[in-house]
Amino acid sequence: MAIAKRFWLVSAAGLTGITGAGAADQPVRKAALVEYLRVCSAYGTGFFYIPGTDTCLRVGGRARFEAGYAQNYGRSGANGDLSQYRGLGRLNLDARTQTGYGTLRAFVRFEIASRTGAFLTSGTQQRIGNAFPALGVDTFGRSQQFANVDKAFVQFAGLTAGRASSFFDFYAHDFEIIGATAGSELASTNLIAYTATLGEGFSATLSLEDPIFRKTPLYGNAATTGNLASQFNVFTGNFNVSPVIGTDAAGNPVGLAFLDVVQRSRLPDFVGTLRYDGAWGAAQISAAVHEINTGNASFAINGFNASVGAPVARPAGTTFAPRAQNEYGWAVQGGVKINLPFIAKGDSLYLQGAYGEGAQSYTGYSFYTGQYAASVTAGNIQGSPFPQFFSDAVVNPATGRLELSTSWTVLASYLHYWTPDWRSAVFGSYGEIAFPQGARTALGLVNFNGIGNPVTAPAAFAFSNQLRDTNQFVVGGNVIWSPVKDLDIGLEALYTRVSLNNGRTVDQNRNPGQTVANVVNGVPVNAAGAPVATTSFADAVQVRMRVQRDF
């Protein structure tokens, strides 16, 4: 062992000497010059030149924590959560290069988040593939991971192409934490647009936008067809049907066909805006056209009860209306932002209104309560006593034609700075949606979705919750403290109320699964003659706090 130890020591010393001698004999090389980052002041603060290029880059982002309380009315199914939480991270990359045609810009934004709670898990984002649910017994519907390419667009010489906010939008919940007022805000869609600068503060934009992110499902329900969905072994997420009445050679109704009312992407949405920006504020007029279409008839059955068994051959001589003709929804919006520095520096007021036919996403009636869903619990309230409907159109089973819904919204939002470190906002909105009543009556004649027959069961028809016209009122306020630059600590509370425009409906909290069979001495009763509780509205309070750091 002693001999081996001396051997390794001698060997190490020898190698060290050889290495040192060899190094001394090598030619000396000069250290390469290091190209340090240079500040780029052409586009504002935070930009630097990418080494070796004339492109300026700004790296930024956001970290956010949110916690909230949401009132609820029941603990059935996924209902019953009071608390909700979210942690969110954002990364921004803004690259700009000056060219002979002006600035060439590329902007990318990624957002990732972990959400829990009935509201923050956001079925809206899940329905468009931006979020992914947990699958545990206690976490399903209550935990969700969110991942989104929120922005990825190129701007050059008036052209904007890529994933960006819809040019239709104006206020877009600028002063809100929760974002619950009724108004359009499509932060991420795929588009190509051209903006012309007209001078004197005016600009005009024409934008072709991806229709997928503006579709509200047509009225229909696969579950209503009973075991037909399972017999066809079709995933219900892509299976939405609505009935049309078949007639014999004499014109007598003898059966039903079911139209596939899943919408396809055929034409882009056409959006146009005229905008003015000045020292006093900004104003914008927006318009949009949105195609609505259906598929072919899926199958036919005898009789008028959509919940019968397996499909059967059509009766001889039966004819059905062809595939519903495409319709075109449209919407218009006007908004103004008024700066109010004479009250306090930074104060401003937004006023906005929108009207649409077959374009509910553009009026923003369901922005908070349930985008991309034909119906949700009223006001997005857990355990709401009745559902709230949003469909852009309904197939009239008597005519086989698409009939459009109409919606409109108005809102106001005011931001006030009490001091440079403290600010608060108050906001409110009101909106209504109405459905074609001729189509609803015809759907009652075939008892689709359990709508009572208006002739033989008028009470069941009158108290049915399906396709009821509703209105929605939201009012709220927040206070935000910014002790240092780019740090916000805020608290917001709001009250929302959803009401039927007329009549009443069964309160499903107190009478789950019940229908009204008759009205006796002014009291709605079921088939057994027992009273059925009804209601005409649902309301709730929600509170949320936020800690946010931008950089």
Helices and strands in order:
Layout: H1 2-25, E1 48-49, E2 56-70, E3 83-99, E4 102-116, H2 123-127, E5 131-133, E6 143-156, E7 159-164, E8 189-199, E9 202-209, H3 228-232, E10 241-247, E11 253-260, E12 269-278, E13 281-292, E14 297-302, E15 327-339, E16 348-357, H4 360-363, E17 375-377, E18 387-389, E19 393-396, E20 401-404, E21 406-419, E22 422-434, H5 437-445, H6 458-463, E23 470-481, E24 487-500, E25 505-506, E26 518-520, E27 523-525, E28 534-535, E29 537-550
Antiparallel strand pairs: 1-2, 2-3, 2-29, 3-4, 4-6, 5-6, 6-7, 7-8, 8-9, 9-12, 10-11, 11-14, 12-13, 13-15, 15-16, 16-21, 17-18, 19-20, 21-22, 22-23, 23-24, 24-29, 25-28, 26-27
